[in-house]
Amino acid sequence: MVKEFASHHYWALILGGSSGLGLAAARKLAMHGMNICIVHRDTRVDMERINSDFQDIRAYGVQVLAYNADAVNAGKRQEVLAALKVAMGDKGRVRTVVHSIAKGNLKAMNSDNARLSTDDFHITLGNMAISLYDWTQELVEQQLFAPDARVLSFTSEGSSKAWKHYGAVAAAKAALESISRQIALEFAPLGLRANCIQAGVTDTRSMQQIPGSEHIITYTKQRNPFHRLTTPEDVANAVYLLCKDEAAWINGAVIPVNGGEHISQA
Q: 223's torsion region: left (phi>0), alpha (psi -120 to 50) or beta?
């Protein structure tokens, strides 16, 4: 395994990196020599498995910092970045931010039971979209980015298509894409490249929480040209490619990573 990032003392800041796409991205980047700082929000019940996963990443010979904290809390953000700055020392810089926060409300707009509220929208947008800007802006202000840095986030087809119970998350994904484009434009003079990865349907914990997810999975297997779901590793491979020097001219894009799922009808 070529560890091309190691000699540069690069770090990746993974927001939402304890499972699914974020964890897979952390593992892939660590395999290639990038140090990892993970911010996640989990209960004690899950921590044994999560700590084991983090130890596996450390086995690649990189530094791993992990913080079980609310990523939208400004005070916690300052604490994490202060610790990261100490860990990086004089040589280290953040090469990439990977935004994989999946804290949102999955409720129907028209329902006799729990109905999607305005507060649900605010919570979902804050976590799954606006937090990307907050962290990016803070890293810029503290001059923690490498001269050539990558800001990556995960979106879905739900940003432009309507799925039942997905209204708040869909709004957040659309906002996330818009914020990413603005970062790509306005922070380009500082060396930042920002892109969204439109991951195909992936059987993650977040996916399983969507009502009717089993029907989406069945339909996707029929629709996808390769007749399988996207895996977290598929997406992590794309994250790795976008972090390479050769990807420096890719900026402001929404990139499907789904085996052609978006071009096919079942």
A: alpha
Place of tokens 């503290």: 142
37 neighbors 59 (Cβ within 8 angstroms): no
pLDDT at 171: 95
Contact 257, 116 (CB under 8 A): no
Other CB atoms within 10 A of residue 2 CB? 8
CA dihedral for 126, 128, 133, 138, sign (positive or negative): positive
CB 212 within 8 A of CB 176: no
Distance CA 245, CA 247 (A): 5
The C-alpha atoms of residue 151 and residue 106 are separated, in whole angstroms, by 26
Which amino acid is located at 121 in the chain?
A: F
Over the stretch 203-243, which tens digit does the pLDDT of each residue have?
888 888 877 788 888 988 999 999 999 999 999 999 999 99
Q: Are 82 and 74 in contact (CB under 8 A)?
A: no
- Asked if 197 contacts 239 with a C-beta cutoff of 8 angstroms, the reply is yes
Bridge partner list, 94: 11, 145
The alpha carbon of residue 194 and the mean position of all alpha carbons in its chain are separated, in whole angstroms, by 12
Rounded to whole angstroms, the Cα distance separating 174 from 101 reads 15
d(CA 145, CA 102): 24
Query: pLDDT digits over 29-45, tens only?
Result: 999 999 999 999 999 99
The answer to whether the CB of 202 falls within 8 A of the CB of 238 is no
137 pLDDT higher than 80? yes
Which amino acid type is present at position 227? Answer: H
d(CA 243, CA 76): 26
Contact 35, 62 (CB under 8 A): yes
